[in-house]
Amino acid sequence: MAKRQGGTGAMMVTGLARQGSRLACWLPVGVALGIAAYFALPEEPPWWLCVAIMGGVAVGLALLVGSRWVVAVTERAARWQLLGCCVGSAVCALGMGFLLAFAQARRQPPMPLLPLESMVVEGRLAALEPVIGRHVEGGASWRVTIKGAVFRSPWWEGMAPLSRSLVITLPAKDIPVVEHMNPGEAVRVRALLRAPMAPSWPGGYDGQRAAWFSGRAGTGTALSPVERVDDAQADRGRWGAIRGQVARQIEHYLPGQVGAIAAAVLCGETGLISTQTRQDYAASGLAHLLAVAGLHLGFVMGFVFVLLRRGMSLSQRLSAHWPCREIALVASLGAGVAYVLLTGCHIPGLRALGMAGLGVVAFLLGRRVISLRGLALVALALEVASPVVVLDVSFQMSFAAVMALIAGYEPLRGVLARLGGYGARPVGRSWGQRPPWWRRMAVGVVMLVITSLLAGLATLPLSMAYFGAFQPWFVLANILAVPLMGLWVMPAGLIALALMPLGLSAVALRVMGWGIEVISWLARHVAVMPFASWPVPSFPAWDVGLFLLGLAVLCLWRGMARFCGLGMIGVALVLVWVVPRPVMVITTLEHALAVRQEGEMRLVEGRLGMPLVRQEVQRALGWQARGVGVPFCQAGICRVPLKAGQVILWRMLEGADEVLQPQQSQLCAHVALEVNVREQKPLCMAAQHVSIEDIKREGSWAVYDDGRGGVRFISARMWQGERLWVGPMGFHGVPPLPFAKAE
Q1: Label partner for 649 (CA 20 to 30 A): which of 207, 372, 377, 445?
Q2: Helix, strand or coil for residue 81?
Q3: Which residues cross the membrane (predicted)?
Q4: Which parts of 171-245 are beta strand (E)?
Q5: Which of 192, 204, 171 shows the shortest CA–CA distance to 614?
């Protein structure tokens, strides 16, 4: 037995030693796990736990430093030294991630209570942007972000400015009033304010957590046009103003959805893209073309690099005396920085810019340009700067795609070199002669297919988890659309950006628009192909984490053990189909009650008018809505059959007490749960109850069938736990005070 244990230990140490510098890539993974552990807690950790974790980090750091300084004289000592380094690093990473998330949550300003009545709000204009996917009569809705807001009311006289921002939605008719305003100007608007949105079902999107970490106090709807108060202290916000000017010029020359896509690609304005366009691009697997990320940044930097490199090579003096390649590379990085600033500094763009900056520095120093260690360094920097970014879908998808691309191309580098003719020297051709054009084109096509497969397969489960759809035709669509974007749309768009200050961008924008029309035509036709988009149920958060951990093992580990990551990915994809789904969801928003029967979502009470609420309820129940109606209802009583019992949904009707009183014993037979979504007294006293008071106090509810004649239910408040960002349920602001007689 001892010999067997020694052999296992030796194999483990050998596997760790084989990783070499690759072990450093696991540091951001450990930090991410520590961050996830903080957010998974049911309540805020006590101070003693944080102190204990700090002690664990100190012990891990001491173990790491001590094992590095100790000189191993025997094989056994070397084994313990390596294990000490790994254990110390793991403890430090996990503890650091937990403490970073704890510190970020504690640094946020407190959440204010907003007034319930309409209020005149004054503050500084911080941003003006369209609302993504929301269109009303007369055009798209827009929203203004106001910082340092105060409420102009006698009851709020002398209040300190809010430390959090307010996001107020404007109708399209009010946009001409504010489109010429600059960030920093003092503005006034009357609006009806709302607190951050609680989860529409236990496990759904947590708007309160998002608002807590993004610095928002709440949202609102404008009831009057925005007025300028003064602009003496206006901060012009150069990049925001430039972004608005670019978007207006694009809209002038390219109206409609073509201009909306062009604005999204060139300046990051995605709000004018219609819901139908988004659905077409999503169903065809081309949704990533609408969001500025590494693909677009690569096109920008590649175009600038080739243009400058070819231009300088035309001068014999420059080619002989100047490092043209290095100059072009640094200039392309500068163009990339300007592009990321212009498009709003989103997470995918920042990740790609960090990778590009590391690649440029590595090239100038003669090191490998793209590596997993560079990706790990960028990920660690983002995690330290904002730990909550680990929960962001764009962060997860962008790093999953790049990690899969780097790891996937490592074993294929030699094969692609031989395919392109850069391997062994062919007979009759010198070393300096370039391979034939058809071989270079073949390599480009093969790399395009491989890139689409690697990035698509790495992000496909995440797309299924967050957007509830599976697109099997994404490879075909990307093989055709990505070259069009890189060789047609982006070069024309960059030329248009360069000519805009001169007022000569019309021709370039129209050429860009033709390319966008071709890509949109492709997206529409791929979207209507058979099985273009299959609805899939929602993924629990732990299932997404299991998939990402399996992907990290597959991409980062060296040796045969890396294929354990495939097993973890397979388990994550299988478990999503067997995880229990609620048979009923009761939402506080829109006052909706929906049930799942025979694979269909049926609405019993209320309405699902808000797209976000409808989407979340469909994901909760596991399927998209195939039929909406009232199931199994007679005389105001709706029965939902379970596996070994019934759930009664009682809808209070006029005179229902007299009608139901003689049938009460018969109606209450085999009742597991009674739900009262209105002010009404219980019908079945022996059953479990969810009343309107429970909904007001605990928020939304999800009811599960336990298969044994009973039910299990959980509320949004139970799922969220006692966290800093969870506000009191059923109390959405400061109630209005009574009017005086003079009013």
Answers
A1: 207
A2: helix
A3: 21-40, 46-70, 82-103, 286-308, 320-342, 372-391, 441-467, 473-499, 511-533, 539-556, 563-580
A4: 186-194, 216-222, 227-230
A5: 204
